[in-house]
Model the fold of this input.
Amino acid sequence: MGKAGKALRQVLEEFEVSQYSLAAALNIERNSVYRWVNEKSDPSGETIIELVRALKELKPEAAKAFVERYLGEEVNDI
Done:
């Protein structure tokens, strides 16, 4: 599975955001966040946008770090 889960796991750990708080901000069950973080499934493109919005609410610096880690190389090459 994917790059999004790996980036999300790193950001949650680094910025001390719990899977529970992220799930609550997204209004979803924690099980979904668990599956992404453990690379058992990937969030959809629409969900990536919602993840960034939720992280912005919880910790803006975490949202920025997630985008940089998930899209960094692709965005920098444009």
